């Protein structure tokens, strides 16, 4: 019997036909393709990476972003319905998809340069690249006010220095959006920089990676970034120097 969600607040009648179609597509995916995998994956302590191409094919990564970047250009209600259905299947599944979409692709689209958008968004939308979001730290958790990671300006470069922990997708990501405290503004307020750092942990795609089920630890992040805008950077694998543009 197909799953039917309880609708205590009569939300169904408020949805458009497109939103219902998107919701039902996500529901069928969870029922038919994900739930048969999740018990074994849970017992083995791994995320079933074989579902990533299918999530991309269904348009679940960056679904609210424009089609020119390979995304579905859906509304935010549809995006919420996708994540509601993925969460019903497994919190790790929803976390994987929402980090990729809301915490990596959206910041690159909003704050990155056009070059960064065209480099990363099609790869992330297609699942050829995986992203992570580095805010949480061992001393203050996810409180940006207590964050100790810094982005220090040295000439035309930034140097990232700090430690991030419990970062979903952190051990398999190709690109990491890192939060750091930048220099103080003219008003004396500490600015926060968002840096898109190319991850040295990229290309680990084999099933058995810890993926999103238990957020992996990320090592201390130190990146040197040449500056061409006002604060978003993309680190090369080796040496640790990176081109930057965007917003802080």
Keyword list:
single chain, 248 residues, alpha/beta, Butyryl-Coa Dehydrogenase, subunit A, domain 1, Butyryl-CoA Dehydrogenase, subunit A, domain 2, 2 domains, five-stranded mixed sheet, three-stranded mixed sheet, 5 helices, 33% helix, disordered C terminus
Q: β content, as a range?
A: 15-25%
The whole-angstrom Rg is 19 Å
Element-by-element helix/strand order: HHHHHEEEEEEEE
**CATH homologous superfamily assignment of the largest domain:** Butyryl-CoA Dehydrogenase, subunit A, domain 2
What share of residues is helical? 25-40%
Can you tell me the CATH class of the largest domain? Mainly Beta
Total count of domains:
2
Would you tell me which CATH topology of the largest domain applies? Butyryl-CoA Dehydrogenase, subunit A, domain 2
Number of H/I helices: 5
Write the layout of secondary structure elements.
Elements: H1 17-44, H2 52-57, H3 76-89, H4 91-111, H5 114-125, E1 131-134, E2 150-154, E3 157-163, E4 175-184, E5 190-198, E6 220-227, E7 233-235, E8 241-244
Parallel strand pairs: 1-4, 6-8
Antiparallel strand pairs: 2-3, 3-6, 4-5, 7-8
Helix pairs in contact: 1-3, 3-4, 4-5
């Amino acid at each position: 019997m197909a799953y039917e969600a309880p609708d205590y607040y009569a939300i169904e009648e408020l949805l458009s036909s497109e939103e219902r179609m998107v919701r039902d597509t996500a529901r069928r995916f969870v029922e038919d393709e994900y739930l048969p995998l999740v018990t074994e994956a849970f017992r083995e302590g791994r995320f079933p990476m074989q579902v990533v191409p299918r999530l991309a094919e269904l348009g679940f990564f960056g679904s609210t972003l424009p089609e020119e970047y390979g995304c579905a250009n859906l509304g935010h209600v549809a995006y919420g319905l996708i994540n509601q259905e993925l969460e019903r299947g497994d919190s790790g599944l929803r976390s994987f998809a929402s980090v990729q979409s809301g915490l990596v692709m959206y910041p690159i689209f909003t704050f990155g340069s056009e070059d960064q958008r065209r480099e990363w968004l099609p790869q992330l939308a297609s699942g050829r690249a995986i992203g992570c979001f580095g805010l949480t730290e061992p001393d203050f958790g996810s409180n940006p006010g207590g964050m100790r990671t810094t982005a220090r300006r040295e000439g035309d470069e930034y140097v990232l220095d700090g430690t991030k922990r419990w970062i979903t997708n952190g051990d398999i990501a190709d690109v990491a959006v890192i939060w750091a405290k930048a220099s103080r503004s003219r008003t004396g307020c500490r600015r926060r920089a968002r840096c898109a750092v190319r991850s040295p942990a990229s290309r680990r795609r084999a099933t058995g990676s810890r993926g999103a089920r238990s957020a992996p630890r990320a090592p201390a992040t130190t990146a040197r970034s040449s500056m061409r805008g006002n604060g978003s950077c993309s680190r090369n694998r080796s040496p640790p120097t990176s081109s930057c543009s965007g917003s802080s």
